[in-house]
Design brief:
By secondary structure, the protein is an alpha/beta fold. It has ten helices and seven strands. Strands 4-3-2-1-5-6-7 form a seven-stranded mixed sheet. Strand 5, helix 8 and strand 6 form a beta-alpha-beta unit. Helix 1 crosses helix 2, helix 1 crosses helix 4 and helix 2 runs antiparallel to helix 3. It is globular, with a radius of gyration of 17 Å. The protein starts with a strand and ends with a helix.
Length: 217
């Protein structure tokens, strides 16, 4: 495996997209199931892994086209192209790690799929009456064990970009964290340092300042 001096690990849902797409999609397609499962997850009587599986696997396969249509209607946060340009110029990879469905991630990224180093997301089986999901990096409580994925890379500085509570574990194993929304609130309470951000232009500018300062030392 190739070794990197720096690597950027980025969440997708609510981070690359401007709002949460997985929860929005299931609440739209299976609202009754969503109302039933959400309180169970919030009360921690059901793990996120169990909840997501139950919700997604209640969606008929014939409605998969609606799953993709939903995510395609959600705008992406500005500046991802420019951030990728900047990272390319520094030979720094960007790895997308999502607890959402691979089809949703790849469809929304479009041509940018070819520009990210790797994509880790939940796979779907559409051969039956209902969608089935599986993950090669399943954790105890989540479908995507983000810290375990990060550990697969030989990298010096680990940089994380996230927005929600599913990014907490990723943030804890990272050297530099860009956090917004729920993730920022949680990290502020725990004392973990982070950099607030609004869009990917903010991240590019901050990284440029920091890395230029490193060169000047």
């Amino acid at each position: 495996m190739q070794s990197y001096k720096k690597s950027v690990f980025c969440d997708f849902d609510g981070t690359i997209t401007s709002k949460e797409t997985l929860s929005g999609m299931v609440s739209h397609l299976v609202p009754d199931r969503w109302k039933e499962i959400l309180p169970e997850m919030l009360a921690r009587r059901m793990t996120l892994r169990e909840g997501v599986k139950t919700l997604v696997e209640s969606i008929p396969t014939k409605r998969y086209g609606e799953v993709i249509d939903f995510v395609m209607a959600v705008p992406m946060r500005p500046g991802l192209d420019e951030l990728l340009d900047f990272l390319d110029s520094r030979s720094v990879p960007l790895i997308v790690i999502s607890g959402g469905l691979r089809g949703m991630v790849e469809a929304r990224l479009g041509p940018l799929v070819k520009r990210v180093r790797d994509i880790y997301a939940v796979d779907t089986d559409l051969s039956g009456e209902f969608i089935r999901v599986s993950s090669t990096h399943e954790g105890e409580t989540e479908l995507m064990d983000k810290p375990r994925i990060i550990q697969q890379y030989v990298t010096g500085q680990v940089i994380a970009i996230g927005d929600g509570f599913t990014d907490i574990n990723m943030a804890q194993v990272s050297d530099l964290v860009f956090a917004r929304d729920a993730l920022a609130q949680i990290l502020q309470k725990t004392g973990k340092e982070f950099i607030p951000w609004n869009d990917f232009h903010d991240i590019r500018r901050e990284l440029e300042i920091r890395w230029e300062a490193e060169i000047g030392r």
